[in-house]
Amino acid sequence: MDRSRPFVAVLTATLLAGTGITVLSSAARAADADLARNGGFESGLDGWTCTAGTTVTSPVRSGSSALQATPAGSDNARCAQTVTVKPDSQYTLSGYVRGSYVYLGASGTGTTDVSAWTQSAPNWQQLSTTFRTGPSTTKVTIYTHGWYGTGAYHADDVSLVGPSVDPGQPPAPPTGLRTGTVTSSSVALSWTAVSGATSYAVYRDGVKVQTVSGTSATVTGLSPQTAYAFQVAAVNDAGESAKSATVTATTTAGGGGDSDLPPHALVGYLHASFANGSGYTRLADVPDSWDVIDLAFGEPTSVTSGDIRFDRCPAAECPNVESDADFKAAIRAKQAAGKKVLISIGGQNGQVQLTTTAARDTFVSSVSKIIDEYGLDGLDIDFEGHSLSLNADDTDFKNPKTPVIVNLISAVKTLKARYGDDFVLTMAPETFFVQLGYQYYGTGKWGGQDPRAGAYLPVIHALRDDLTLLHVQDYNSGPIMGLDNQYHSMGGADFHIAMTDMLLTGFPVAGDAINVFPPLRPDQVAIGMPASTNAGNGHVAPAEVVKTLDCLTKKANCGSYATHGTWPALRGLMTWSINWDRYSNWEFQRTFDGYFG
């Protein structure tokens, strides 16, 4: 799409309208008040909803914080909040901005929506505009945004001055707070509705962790066998009530499909159905260092059939391939030695789209047949390419509604229930489908984004209590923004540190501070790396692998990225692939053994 022509049209229309840019009145009337909430961004993004924003301590115009938002090719980095206003009343919106093509505006005014903008503001520049609300207007949305691909902008000291509306009183505190289902990593809560409340804030150990509109919530990302205290407050336009009485809950043991893995595990993919330049490696010849062996790959008969087949590499392609009997005997021998052998579904060529419930059911039956035939320990989901994408109206990772997402979650839960607590479930998504969700989720609130962005997040979240390991592929990746709001690229320890920190810290999805992807437990996370330069883009030398592990498990030997914690229980490493590591004289395995051995 050519964005240059619409851009000129927008600017011209703004200039010709003649109603957008005004000068603040010399004095506000006595009854006027500043209605913008957290206009100085001193409380983070509280009150604001942003597609790609965060707060920074420099540059700031006043106070200690300011907004920084970074537009991209299909996102103008809009930050907005909805404010209660008086009908048929005059308001002045103002704020200070830095950057190129920065906008400040108001929509939903009931009369003429307005905006002010600057083409270039190398230093703080004030923007202001006025509007009159319509005769029945009670809510107005104020916003800032930049322009597509023009770099980060900053905003500070945003105000909306005009007649205030008596918000009344905050609601009464909720009563009847009680716990429901408790797992190793989550606690379900419910409470009695409060008259006049528009939402509820959920607190864990005194820290607000969720805001919900209903009278129930599930707090996730908890540690096993740990006691937590919960409270709830009711919220309306007047503010937040006092907190409810406290209830406590202790999470259960285990969970997440730990399945007797060692404290630090080495995971690798074995080319079991194809050959390439790395050569065929017999399962019996895989060294004992490998704790989880993913058989690559089970693939569908067609993209949407759900019918998964596992065809072992033919002798014509892999001359040294073992017989089926020897292959099955090797599986049993690995299991007797405490190793886990899984079937990995997908891969680069195995696109799987469970678009119907029939495909879902076929997936369950066909995967079960493979597991049963070979006596495998579980399943690895390695969906890549176009297997997972989000429908335009699917905007909440906690409540997905896209069929390919919903059906995959249902299928995996069915498999888990069929095989029980010892069923090993792992996932190997690409960074585009996970960490990119910090900036973008699906097509975005205003459309135009890649619908695959962040599409693994609802799957991981729905299955987090069943998940043994998540090992994101930290390779074949473009630059990804970390929690420091800097882009990180492959090639060194910083990339792996930043990507893993996001999983262990949690992050707001698409910049929405009240829609946070909760952290995973460290024992659920392994770091995916290529075994050699032949295996994939993003290979790092053993010294960089050691730096990565030192920083994440000991907070030592760190580079420029500052982690949000230290995780000695980080499960370990995953690599593509065992075959390529053998080809490279077992360099990756030796690095792991040297560090954790």
TrEMBL record:
Domain GH18 residue range list: 264-597
Q: Membrane-crossing residues?
A: none
Keywords, in A-Z order: Carbohydrate metabolism, Glycosidase, Hydrolase, Polysaccharide degradation, Signal
PROSITE patterns named in the record: FN3, GH18_1, GH18_2
Q: What domain of life does the native source organism fall in?
A: Bacteria
**Record's keyword annotation contains Transmembrane helix:** no
List the CDD domains: FN3, GH18_chitinase_D-like
Question: Which BP terms in the Gene Ontology apply to this protein?
Answer: polysaccharide catabolic process
InterPro entries xref list? CenC_carb-bd, Chitinase_II/V-like_cat, FN3_dom, FN3_sf, Galactose-bd-like_sf, GH, Glyco_hydro18_cat, Glyco_hydro_18_chit_AS
Query: Looking at the Swiss-Prot or TrEMBL record, what is one Pfam family this protein matches?
Result: fn3
Query: E.C. number, please?
Result: 3.2.1.14
Signal peptide: which range, if any? 1-30
Domain Fibronectin type-III, residue spans: 173-254
Q: Tell me, what is one Gene Ontology molecular-function annotation carried by this entry? A: chitin binding
SMART domains reported for this sequence: FN3 (SM00060), Glyco_18 (SM00636)
The similarity comment for this entry is: Belongs to the glycosyl hydrolase 18 family. Chitinase class II subfamily.
This one is known as chitinase
The species this protein belongs to is Streptomyces davaonensis (strain DSM 101723 / JCM 4913 / KCC S-0913 / 768)
Q: Lineage of this protein's species?
A: Bacteria, Bacillati, Actinomycetota, Actinomycetes, Kitasatosporales
